[in-house]
């Protein structure tokens, strides 16, 4: 998982993700703005790279770009990659939609140079993976980034409805192009800012059947809200309202699908309190604490539990997982049952030492032990 910092704090002395008014709720008119995406056909697609499966690599990789003009929403986040397990003809597999980490609260993240390694364990376990970009993420943000440049990226992100247009394009194309992807088993997954994106897509797209968010940026701080107003003054065409609505905490109640939230007491960027607070707003959510070293290794530490959780979800209706690598199969994981009425939330206190931690998450109550 690529390491990054929230450069907003570097630029303007802004605190990283923090708490906002827990009682703040979007009005119905605001909800229609963010989730009322413009209609239209799926853009044409250009294939830019292909690598077939072989004896060592049991998946097919293709890189694509949506064919769009620079003034169309979806343009700057037009690149995406597909990793499809090499399964027998007629076999259908579940699919994970993944937007990489590394964005701020108000811009997107390109998939052009995104690493595929973090998602390969899931491909080997029998899941297709789509790594997609979101608008407003083509320029890396550093301490030298100007407010004007940041405002431009924020505008691109807002015009793409906080990346929801990018996600819709990716889902539309994959369902049209790959008959081996099961349309009933589509899930979003992501870490940090990518976790925020996973939550937003799960709230917006009725085709999504589940969501995993590792240490998600699920709240926007008051300082970041003030910065948003500065960005709006720097670029008058920026839809401040659209970005203000993209705070997932405001729409947590829209998430009606199974949800796994992962947090760590050792996370120096996203607090456990934020993640737990978000989980309280989603009935039936599974909230797990893992003993990570920091924010960045949470996806690695949580990998085994995440795979089990996804495997149970993907086999809940009697389907099977056709693993590309037989050694990585998760077919022996028991199905999810009665998730909506059985909420399992676990917490863990702060570690007194970071030495000698196991790579296996340690939690007070195992949500997989029914």
UniProtKB/TrEMBL annotation:
Domain Peptidase S9 prolyl oligopeptidase catalytic, by residue range, is 170-273
Report residue spans for region: Disordered: 322-370
Q: So which residues are the signal peptide here?
A: 1-22
Output one GO BP term.
proteolysis
Q: Which UniProt keywords apply?
A: Hydrolase, Signal
Pfam families in the cross-refs: Peptidase_S9
| Keyword Signal attached | yes
Where does this protein have compositionally biased stretches of type Polar residues?
A: 358-370
Biased composition, Basic residues: where in the chain?
A: 340-354
Question: Which PROSITE patterns does the protein's record reference?
Answer: PROKAR_LIPOPROTEIN
**What are this entry's molecular-function GO terms?**
carboxylic ester hydrolase activity; serine-type peptidase activity
The protein's superkingdom reads Bacteria
What SUPFAM superfamilies does the record point to?
alpha/beta-Hydrolases
PANTHER family for the chain = DIENELACTONE HYDROLASE DOMAIN-CONTAINING PROTEIN-RELATED, POLYKETIDE TRANSFERASE AF380
Q: What is this protein called?
A: Alpha/beta hydrolase family protein
Q: What taxonomic ancestry is recorded? A: Bacteria, Pseudomonadati, Planctomycetota, Planctomycetia, Pirellulales
